[in-house]
TrEMBL record:
Top-rank taxon: Bacteria
InterPro entries the UniProt entry points to: Ig-like_fold (IPR013783)
Gene3D superfamilies (UniProt xref): Immunoglobulins (2.60.40.10)
Protein name: Abnormal spindle-like microcephaly-associated protein ASH domain-containing protein
Length: 353
């Protein structure tokens, strides 16, 4: 009898423990879940563009009401960024709201990279906070020597990559054309897919090229072994919105299905492959194609027109199998900022890399 009572009491206590276990549903009202569409936003302004406006989507992916109680920009350059007309708000389950953030440099004295942090707070005092990195690039103007250096582009994104530029305040990466690697650049003219079960992704970080030719450029890949390779277009860059060819995070037109948030994915060949960009402008030269392989750039006696830099996180840690390709479509300015493209899930095919 006593044994039966003990078993029954143990069962009751176990049931109570189950109902109060951390993380279990305690029977309270459902709560909202704050989800942001991006973790970083980049801007550029100056010259004919006094300010830049980008958008961020705030969504409630939970089952209850989401209360956004705080929106604040912090950091050394916080005064350059603004969220006009925004105050605390609530979202029902499944609802979203678009926030506009603007970057406005003060004057020519502000030239160069500037950064801040957008803090979005859910709930009341002590509520959870999500942060969005804000990078703003103040430029002197558009085209030619008024464009920003590749180093300033990297700095605006917060990438601690050294380009080898001795004077980042000028547009030129190198004063004289050279085939030699500079800064953190590595030798990587052809690539292999790092993880054969995953696609390779392509993202255009910046372009500072001739902005009034449609398209500004096309970008794609090719199998490296062929004498006359078949070029596989992945994306093109339209001239609109205005000055899209002189912009960080420009708008792209994907040529393959499944592109999301400006990132194009593709199944790379099983062997080695390279990347190319095609430039239709005839203002300074006849239409030409620039390859990651120097030997294919026969339009120039010094054919090294694409410089690959291994990607690093903002904290300095290397990012595995990710490279930024900095392209110079001509030999006039040696700036390598005409197309700055991030490639993921690749490894250099060159021996020893």
């Amino acid at each position: 009898m006593k044994k039966s009572l003990l078993i029954a009491l143990s069962a009751v206590l176990a049931g109570c423990a189950e109902t109060t276990r951390p993380g279990e549903d305690s029977g309270g009202p459902p709560v909202g879940t704050l989800t942001l569409s991006r973790s970083e936003m980049v801007f550029n302004a100056g010259g004919d563009v006094p300010s830049d406006r980008r958008t961020l989507q705030v969504s409630n992916t939970g089952e209850g009401t989401l209360n956004v109680s705080g929106l604040a920009v912090t950091g050394e350059d916080a005064a350059r960024f603004a969220l006009p007309g925004v105050s605390p708000f609530s979202l029902a389950a499944g609802e979203s709201r678009e926030l506009a953030v603007t970057f406005t440099p003060n004057s020519d004295a502000d030239l160069g990279p500037q950064n801040a942090t957008l803090r979005v707070t859910q709930g009341g005092e002590g509520g959870s906070v999500q942060e969005v990195y804000l990078g703003g690039l103040s430029v002197e103007g558009q085209e030619g020597t008024k464009e920003p250096s590749v180093q300033w582009i990297f700095d605006t994104y917060g990438f601690p990559i050294q380009t080898g530029d001795e004077d980042p305040t000028t547009s030129a990466l190198v004063e004289e054309a050279t085939n030699a690697p500079v800064g953190d650049e590595v030798v990587a003219q052809t690539f292999r897919r790092a993880d054969p079960t995953q696609p390779v992704t392509v993202e255009v970080l910046a372009t500072f090229a001739v902005p009034n030719v449609e398209p500004v450029f096309e970008f794609g890949f090719y199998e490296a072994g062929a004498a006359e390779p078949s070029l596989q277009k992945l994306l093109s860059l339209p001239i609109r919105p205005g000055l899209n060819g002189q912009r960080l995070g420009p708008v792209i037109v994907p040529s393959v299905p499944g592109a999301e948030a400006g990132v194009v994915s593709f199944n790379a060949p099983g062997g080695t492959f390279g990347f190319y960009s095609s430039w239709p402008t005839t203002r300074f030269f006849e239409q030409r194609t620039v390859f990651t392989e120097d030997a294919r750039n026969t339009f120039d006696a010094l054919p090294h027109h694409v410089r690959p830099y291994p990607l690093k996180e903002r904290g300095g840690a290397p990012v595995e199998n990710a490279y930024i390709l900095a392209t110079d479509e001509s030999n006039r300015l040696n700036d390598y900022n005409d197309a700055v493209v991030l490639i993921r899930n690749v490894q250099p095919a060159e021996a020893g890399l």
